[in-house]
């Protein structure tokens, strides 16, 4: 394993601590699926997934691979890189595509599955990390542009940062452990989705005059939702 870290956490002078942040894994997964379907990924085309979809022996469908239906769907992205699809790809003779499928799936499982030790989570992420790093030589000039080995540079950087940030966080967290699913941007996204509910124009934005009342109402609702002593009643 390359022991170099390609992510450096920010230091908060106000809170006197390092603070780790990265793009949410679910977004990176759906972006990986979209690029795989549209133009290919890692120097590989989408032919293998299309053939598997046409055979109809897995949950993969042509609408998911060619039309990229619901591109933001995490379940569809999970299906795209699932073990059943990987086995079907191998049966079609696409070994490199199957290996890509495995690396992406293992990375996602390390972030999403419960009951996995920290050591195993790190190991599960290494396959994708090695795949990404083999496409770049940092001592060469000029540096890569929009694409790095068939990966969009922003996606490449997002995945590397995600993997290294979550590895580095073990040394910063209390007790050297943390809930990997809690490290997410979904809380912030939920906040802003609540905010858009009050936009009667349906544009998802607020004016300066509306901002104070909208934020106040949203904060109040979020506070009630996140209240640990909130009572739940079932009929």
Summarize the structure.
The protein has 235 residues and is mainly α.
Tell me what the structure shows.
The protein has 235 residues and is mostly helical. The protein has two domains: 159 residues, no CATH class; 41 residues, no CATH class. Helices cover 54% and strands 4% of the residues. It has ten helices and four strands; from the N terminus they run E-E-H-H-H-H-H-H-H-E-E-H-H-H. Strands 1-2 form a two-stranded antiparallel ribbon. The chain has a two-stranded antiparallel sheet with strand order 3-4. Helix 1 packs antiparallel against helix 8, helix 7 packs antiparallel against helix 8 and helix 9 packs across helix 10. The longest helix has 20 residues. The chain is globular and about 60 Å long. The mean pLDDT is 86.
């Amino acid at each position: 394993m390359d022991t170099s870290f390609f992510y450096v956490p920010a230091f908060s002078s106000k809170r006197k601590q390092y603070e780790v942040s990265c793009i949410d894994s679910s977004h990176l997964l759906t972006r990986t699926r979209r690029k795989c379907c549209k133009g290919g990924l890692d120097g590989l085309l989408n032919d293998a997934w299309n053939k598997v979809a046409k055979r109809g022996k897995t949950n993969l469908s042509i609408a998911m691979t060619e039309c990229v239906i619901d591109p933001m769907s995490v379940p569809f992205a999970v299906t795209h890189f699932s073990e059943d699809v990987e086995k079907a790809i191998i049966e079609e003779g696409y070994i490199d595509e199957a290996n890509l499928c495995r690396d992406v799936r293992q990375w996602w499982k390390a972030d999403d599955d419960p009951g996995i030790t920290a050591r195993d989570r790190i190991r599960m992420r290494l396959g994708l990390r090695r795949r990404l790093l083999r496409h770049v030589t940092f001592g060469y000039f000029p540096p890569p542009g929009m694409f790095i080995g068939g990966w969009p540079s922003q996606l490449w950087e997002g995945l590397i940062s995600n993997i290294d940030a979550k590895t580095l966080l073990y040394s910063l967290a209390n007790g050297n452990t943390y809930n990997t699913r809690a490290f997410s941007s979904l809380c912030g996204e939920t906040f802003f989705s609540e905010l858009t509910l009050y936009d009667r124009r349906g544009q998802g934005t607020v004016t300066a005059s509306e901002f104070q009342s909208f934020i106040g109402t949203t904060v109040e609702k979020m506070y009630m939702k996140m209240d640990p002593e909130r009572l739940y009643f079932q009929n």
